Amino acid sequence: MNPTILVLAAGMSTRYGRPKQLEPLGPSGETLVDYAVFDALRAGFSRLVLVIREELEQAFRDEVLPRWPRKLEVLFHRQRTDDLPVSGLGYKEEALIRAREKPWGTAHAVLTARPLLPGPFVVLNADDFYGPSAYGRAMAFVREEAPGGVSGNDPPVFALVAYTLRETLSRHGGVNRGLCRVDDRGWLEEVREVLDLRPDHGEIRGRTLGGRTVSLTGEEPISTNFWVFTPEVFPFLEKGLREFLVREAEGAGAGTEGGDGEFLIPTEVNRLLQERAVRVRVPRATDPFFGITHPQDREGVVRGLGELAREGRYPDPLWEGSCS
After folding, report:
1. What distance in Å separates the CA atoms of residue 68 and residue 319, rounded to the nearest whole number?
2. For every one of its 324 residues, what pLDDT tens digit does the chain have, with 9 covering 90 and above?
3. How far apart are the C-alpha atoms of 69 and 62, rounded to whole Å?
4. Helices H, strands E: what count in the chain?
5. Which fold has domain 4-310?
6. Sequence ranges of the domains in the chain
7. What's this model's pTM, rounded to 2 decimal places?
């Protein structure tokens, strides 16, 4: 079955100040989603699902979609805060849902797109540049291991294309990353969300979701949300979402910070790893990573993409005579 690229483009770009998903960054005004599509097509993907907010859909259709090759199947999925594909919720959870304004997070986005994902799929962010090796590693995994796991064994096997922490930092403020612990055979043992990572006197410091400060060298493998899943992940996410909503509702009712949390892919995958419910391969990317978190990051991304074009690694304009 043809694997799908699932692009998470529903973020609110709070720190950036305007929709990063539509920001012109390439030498001829290309967005980072343009580069994702270009690299995905080169790796053999031909089906794309864009997870967006309703107010962004028309802009994507008018400004971005006409540039893409017609052979690419493109589907739009609107991530809504009231789209909770779980049953048996109580009145506290329902009140929490009604009061919610911002998106529920990356794992929620994946779960709500379930009807459009009948086979293996790759999840990635719309505001990150991953480079061609990530898509090649993902396609190799899909072809070799994803259908039913290793030799059809249970538990299911997924993948995470990882980068080195130091290569994904911003010089203009903190970033959030999934810190990975990987065994010597390339299997993921743990992934923890670490917030506000930034250089600090020769080290890199951040804080866990629980508020504990961590110090890192910068050589650690990390997640930038480039995951490879099969539909086997959906029952796990459905169960996790139900439990997440109950916790959030209880926290909100107790006057704590409940009600503002996010249902995140790294957190859910880590829970499943600790329960030994899944296994996750960790191939490493070999290309530069560019991400936009802060407005000042834009200049570095524009410069990096321009250098790649001058080196001949991408055409300029990106789509001229390329993947027709």
Report:
1. 7
2. 689 999 999 865 445 445 788 899 999 999 999 999 999 999 999 999 999 988 888 989 998 899 999 999 999 999 888 888 887 778 888 888 888 877 888 999 999 999 999 999 999 999 999 999 999 999 999 998 765 544 455 799 999 999 999 999 988 889 989 999 999 999 999 999 899 999 988 889 999 888 899 999 999 999 999 999 999 999 999 999 989 988 888 876 544 444 678 899 999 999 999 999 999 999 999 999 998 888 888 999 999 999 999 999 999 999 975 444
3. 15
4. 8, 15
5. Spore Coat Polysaccharide Biosynthesis Protein SpsA; Chain A (3.90.550)
6. 4-310
7. 0.90
Taking the C-alpha atoms of residue 306 and residue 290, their distance in angstroms, rounded to an integer, is 12
Task: Say if residues 122 and 228 touch (Cβ distance below 8 Å).
Answer: yes
DSSP string, 145-198: TTTTSGGGPSSPEEEE-BEEGGGG--TTS-EEEEEEEE-TTSBEEEEEEEEEEE
Residue 253 CA neighbour count, 13 Å, CB half: 13
**Strand ranges across the sheet with 175-182:** 163-164, 221-223, 175-182, 188-200, 203-208, 213-216
